[in-house]
Amino acid sequence: MTRTLAATHRTEGERTVATHRTDRESLRAPWRALALALLAVTLVALPVGSAVAAPPGGDRVAAQAERGAVQLKVTIIEASRGEGGVDRELSRLSRYFERSFKDFKRFKQLGEHQRSVTLDGTATVKLPDGLELSLKHLGVEQGFVRLAMSLDGLKTTIKVKDGGLFFQAGRKHGDGILVLAIEATSAGK
């Protein structure tokens, strides 16, 4: 219910214009719904700090940008149900674990790999279970890095917000599952 605090009327030509001021709470309600909807959309691939530090040397960065290079960072994590918390190295990702992996309480970093990949180039990362993750750079469009991902027969195309993060999870490992945190940043970002 909206409570009107003040109302004024003025005449513009042949019509009367009414202006109403309402209390702040009633004005916030539509904005809260919009904010929650935008939050839900952005959770798909949120930016997480600086994904990869820029390499030294402006000429090298400029050359990568011309070739459409992207910086990929793949963090390999074991998530398990046992107590133990989050490894210090993963603290920047802990807020995602709480929301996306509620059933798991222990997050241990098993490895981290950084690759620079030019357009149509492929980066591969060897996983602890002996399998290989393959990421092919398909381009950057409308603020998203497109990657063809291949892992043990799974082949799919993913879009990661430029500077953002994507999780691939579910493969059994040890007492839990493997979680792959894939960050992608274009050279121009």
Summarize the structure in words.
The chain has 189 residues and is α+β, with helices and mostly antiparallel strands. It has three helices and eleven strands, in the order ββααββαβββββββ. It has helices spanning 24-42, 58-66, 94-100; strands spanning 4-12, 15-22, 70-80, 85-86, 106-117, 122-126, 132-141, 144-151, 154-161, 164-173, 176-186. A hairpin with a 2-residue loop joins strand 1 (4-12) and strand 2.
Structural class: alpha+beta
Low-confidence region ranges: 1-66
Over all CA atoms, what is the radius of gyration?
A: 23 Å
Number of helices: 3
Q: Roughly what fraction of the amino acids lie in strands?
A: over 45%
**What distance lies between the first and last C-alpha atoms, to the nearest angstrom?**
45 Å
Number of strands: 11
Shape: globular
